[in-house]
Amino acid sequence: MNQLTVFRILTFILVPVAILFGILDLFMLLLALSANPAMLLIVFAMACFVIYVFTSVRFLLQGIGNERQLNASLKDWIKVNAYGTLFISVMFLMNSAAAFFINDVNLRQMLGEMIEQQPDVSGKISLDYFVKIFRVISGIMFFVSLMAIAHVLINFKLIRRYEHLFGKE
User: Per residue in 57-86, pLDDT tens?
Assistant: First the structure.
């Protein structure tokens, strides 16, 4: 399988993830502006991921697929947001990998403390169920992170290969 085919597959797998991240990012932005400004870095990195995926879709469909000239600014948008995507993907990858290696006793203790700090959730979700959800989400984020990192690396190679598609502004 060549790089372009892998790039297409990864792009269309990442589109629904980007839509979900975009919706979550809007809620996180409202929360960060009203209550927790420290979350703005994560909001920014998630926005980079969303912008990166959709600019990559445009590069793939209009540029590579239809051989149409693209603005030089699209290449800049892809590259700048690719670095934000790499940042958040590496962070998610490290967190997911750490979640795989933490033993159940420590994980249950940590998640139990998190649940106790949330009075709305405290009696409604069992700890066993919360641990299972945590493990599943960690696994999903591990694979999404790997796909995003591979996508960025392939995209950089394709941008160099299809340099002629990016016109001058």
Answer: 999 998 888 888 888 888 999 999 999 999
Rounded to whole angstroms, the Cα distance separating 59 from 162 reads 10
Token couple for 27: 């809620």
Q: Which of 21, 3, 49 is nearest to 156 (CA)?
A: 3
Long-range pairs, 96-104, Cβ under 8 A, ≥24: 96/138, 96/139, 96/141, 96/142, 96/145, 97/142, 99/134, 99/135, 99/138, 100/138, 100/139, 100/142, 104/131
Contact yes or no for 155/7 (Cβ under 8 A): yes
Q: Which residues of the chain have pLDDT under 70?
A: 1, 118-124, 168-169
